[in-house]
Amino acid sequence: MTDAFGRVIDYLRLSVTERCDLNCLYCGPGARCESGPAACCAAGELVSMAAACVALGVKKIRLTGGEPLLRRDILELIAALRALPGLEELSMTTNGQRLPELAAPLRAAGLDRLNVSLDSLRPGRYRALTRGGSPERVLKGLAAAEAAGFRDLRLNVVLLRGFNDDELAELAGLAREHPWSVRFIELMPIGAGAELDAFLPAEQVLRALPELRAWGQADAASVARLYSAPGWAGTVGLIAPVSRPFCAGCNRLRITADGRLKPCLHAPEEYSLRGLSGEALRAAILAAVAQKPARHRLAELGHSESARPMQRIGG
Predict the structure, then answer these.
(1) What single-letter DSSP state applies at residue 25?
(2) Is 80 helix (H, G, I), strand (E, B) or coil?
(3) pTM above 0.90, yes or no
(4) What are φ and ψ of residue 289, in 5° steps?
(5) Regarding the domain delimited by 11-312, which CATH topology (the fold level of the hierarchy) does it fall under?
(6) For helices 99-109 and 135-148, angle between their N-to-C axes, nearest 10 degrees
(7) Could you state, in order of their start, the residue ranges of all structural domains in the chain?
(8) CA neighbours within 13 Å on the CB side: how many for 17?
(9) pLDDT (tens digit per residue) in 234-250
(10) Neighbouring C-alpha atoms within 13 Å toward the C-beta of 146
(11) Is the pLDDT of residue 111 over 80?
(12) Rounded to whole angstroms, how far apart are CA atoms 199 and 219?
């Protein structure tokens, strides 16, 4: 698929639930999938939508939420998606709380890669930021993931001024000892994040760790600028959607847990895919791609135009 600006769209973020077992300050109160027309899609519906996207050229799918591991049928869903002809990578973003027990089953079901959220290593601070949960559980889950055969593990750290800005070296240091990529992400003004006065530019990481140097070849499709240092086992990534937007190379679509396609995270437009199949589903996806805007307007407006908070879209 190619949009109106010549960008090749080959990456889908597929939300499988709005529910979460944490309640992070920048995300907001946990949303629930209720019965009725806004209910989360059944696995068959999600697979049908994903299959149509893959047939149109999507090569990579990342499962998001909410917390994807709250779905009781997550392993069956992964197996069905992994079987789609033409899909090259199937990954997931998780908060890691259920990963110690589920890492091996996830790998066996066909999941290729994991992104794990970890905004603080300090137990009390982590509990305050997430309003529940344990960083020890996350670290235990990462160890279980490695034991299960997952490689290229990525840790997502949301930069929060006044909350975790004194932990940048400590968090990045995980990449010194482990072959992981610790990725620092700027706080986006969407949902509860728009009300949280805690923005910290990604460049602050380089000031905190002057030994870091640019690492690897630049990839136009990647949103992260990667760095490392001599003797480090892994890398540090900077993702700066606010200070250094990467819209010109955006290659992704999002489908929400209730079956609505969002061509742009921060635009208000959504297109319902529920109840569609065959050519009608294909046409709806292509029509949505044609409406993908050139860029978001965070700089001009100071906030996202999305009507949904991040948890109801999928990270």
Answers:
(1) T
(2) helix
(3) yes
(4) -60, -40
(5) TIM Barrel (3.20.20)
(6) 30
(7) 11-312
(8) 18
(9) 999 999 999 998 899 99
(10) 10
(11) yes
(12) 26
